[in-house]
Design a protein that fits this description.
Distance between the termini: 50 Å
Helix content: 25-40%
Largest sheet: 5 strands, antiparallel
Structural class: alpha+beta
Number of helices: 12
Strand content: 15-25%
Order of helices and strands: EHEHEEEHHHHHHEEHEEEEEHHH
Number of strands: 12
Bound molecules: flavin-adenine dinucleotide, iron/sulfur cluster
Radius of gyration: 19 Å
Length: 333
């Protein structure tokens, strides 16, 4: 591993000021915040990330889950994934989020991993993690060997000719269905970003994954007030029962009125280059009877624009079945 300077942030303002001196907050950043370290240290060992400075944010007072006056839930950036998943309020009112987090990684990793770190975890694309290989995301302009190579795990929605990497997060898929907002403190002040606008499609700049700028510190995430009577479910399909990333997953938040779908939010994981909210599936289902035919139609709508590669055509039908089954199970609950 290369050498780097390590400091502990005593205040958010100091952390932001120091990080704002970096040239970028994206791939190749020379200053990085470190939270649980389960993504960052891994990538530093592989020389995929080589920051010259690490700022430990674990002492900042960002580790609380709090109910706000308006009924929103405020989740601090350094709240551990385990603490969030097991929080009584999350288990009761945002069950899809608890289920999504608990379906990911392992107990040990979830004890370390944080809310902000999970939002910023990087793709598991093999070529991205192998410095000996070209990769447009790691080294812009070098090419994308995954398109003609090993792409079974990679994305079928939101891809470009420059990158087809999947966003691997489970937590973010549930947050997309819950319409979370990400709050950032930056060199120019604070701002709030809806999760749908936070991650970027790869386009011709796959090295740029989020809207974050140098110095931007995620301070917390908010969830809208709970939806009374909503049925929620996260369903994850993968190659083995635990400790594995999704091949396809679905997050559903749904209200039924008299057997009809009066409200639904749908997001998919394992298939998109970003956590994949599907307005198409939501529009196909809203106002319709909660039955198998309409669930399948919603799934068809969600995958209509899928573009498979040589090894991942199977994900189209898998994702459709995943969403159909998630809707069916949620409706029955
Ligand atoms: C073996 C293994 C299996 C896994 N399986 C799964 C899985 O099945 N599903 C899943 O969803 N995830 C999985 N993960 C990923 C895991 O969830 C992430 O590594 C974790 O959530 C990252 O959180 P962290 O706090 O450790 O982040 P860190 O490694 O500390 O940081 C990650 C990135 O976020 C930045 N950062 C951290 N905090 C802030 C902040 N407040 N503001 C701005 N930037 C910040 C860091 O600079 C870094 O770039 C797995 C990981 C491993 C190692
Ligand atoms: S899919 Fe993206 S991350 Fe993977 S090799 Fe291609 S450019 Fe790199």
């Amino acid at each position: 591993m290369h050498t780097f300077e390590f400091t502990r942030a005593e205040s958010a303002a100091d952390a932001v000021q120091t990080a704002a001196r970096a040239k970028t907050a994206q791939q190749g950043a020379d200053v990085r915040f470190i939270a649980g370290g389960t993504t960052l240290v891994d990538l530093m060992k592989l020389d995929v990330e080589m920051p010259s400075r690490l700022i430990d944010i674990n002492r900042l007072p960002l580790d609380k889950v709090e109910e706000m006056a308006g009924g929103e839930l405020k989740i601090g950036a350094t709240v551990r994934n385990s603490d969030l998943a097991h929080h009584p309020k999350v288990q009761r009112d945002y069950a899809v989020l608890s289920q999504a987090i608990l379906s990911g990684a392992s107990a040990q990793l979830r004890n370390m991993a944080t809310t902000a770190g999970n939002l910023l975890q990087r793709t598991r694309c093999l070529y991205f993690r192998d410095n000996a290989m070209p990769c447009n995301k790691r080294e812009p302009g070098t090419g994308c060997p995954a398109i003609t190579g090993s792409n079974r795990m990679l994305a079928i929605l939101g891809t470009s000719e420059h990158c087809i990497a999947t966003n691997p997060s489970d937590m973010c898929v549930a947050m997309a269905a819950l319409e979370a907002t990400i709050h950032v403190q930056g060199a120019k002040g604070a701002r709030s970003i809806p999760i749908g606008d936070f991650h970027l499609l790869p386009g011709s700049t796959p090295q740029r994954e989020t809207v974050l700028e140098p110095g931007d510190l995620i301070t917390h995430v908010t969830l809208p007030p709970p939806r009374p009577g909503s049925k929620q479910l996260y369903l994850k399909l993968r190659d083995r029962a635990s400790y594995e990333f999704a091949l396809a997953s679905a997050a559903v938040v749904m209200n039924l009125t008299g057997g009809n779908v009066s409200y639904v939010r749908i997001a998919l994981g394992g298939v998109g280059t970003k956590p994949w909210r599907s307005p198409e599936a939501e529009a196909a289902l809203t106002g319709k009877a909660a039955n198998a035919a309409n669930f399948r139609q919603a799934a068809e709508a969600a995958l209509r624009n899928a573009r498979p590669q040589s090894e991942n055509n199977f994900k189209i039908e898998l994702a459709k079945r995943c969403l159909t089954h998630a809707l069916h199970t949620a409706a029955k609950s």
